[in-house]
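Following up on my earlier thread - several people asked me to post the actual chain instead of describing it. Fair enough. Here it is, all 196 residues.
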Amino acid sequence: MSGDLFSEEDGNTPLSAEERLGLIPTYITLRHELNEAEQINITDGESWATRRSRNMLDEETLRELHRRMFGKVWAWAGDYSKETNRRIGSDSFRIPLDLREMLDDVQYWIEHDTYPADETALRFHHRLTQIHPFPNGNGRFSRLAADLLAKHLGQPYFSWGRTSLIEAGATRGQYIEALRAADQHDLEPLLQFARS
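Reply from S.P.:
Thanks for posting it. Predicted structure:
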């Protein structure tokens, strides 16, 4: 993995110059330092989310989850991306609309038992990664949100390949490929990967 703090490896969201200025800890100069600081903050976010049952189908809860996961590292944590020229994700003006539509869809799927619980949670995860609402941390955020939804639906957390998906490697590559298959309406690789 590159030591460059803002490298644009496969699957990493490129940050604008303005977004890069949102880095709070001044000691961070290398990617592994950023990953470590984010991981500590993510653990805090997960603790917040699991202290009591949180409604993962509520937009403000999702924003607060992202804020709790990244707020000690990034000043913009919990704020929607303002960038309009990203190669991934919804246009900035569409993020609230796309999220509302997705949350309504997932609520319908649950109420009408449209899909099995795992599939519902993974469709939720996949759609969050497609919308890509935040400048960074969308994969980690959407995996935790999917875990929390799966738990609410009576399922255990997903294993997500049983290894860190932060650094480039074979497991991260499998995850990215599973997401790309889901983009093409083939959810089976993501279903298999999430429980592998």
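The two ends are 23 Å apart (CA to CA). That should answer part of your original question.
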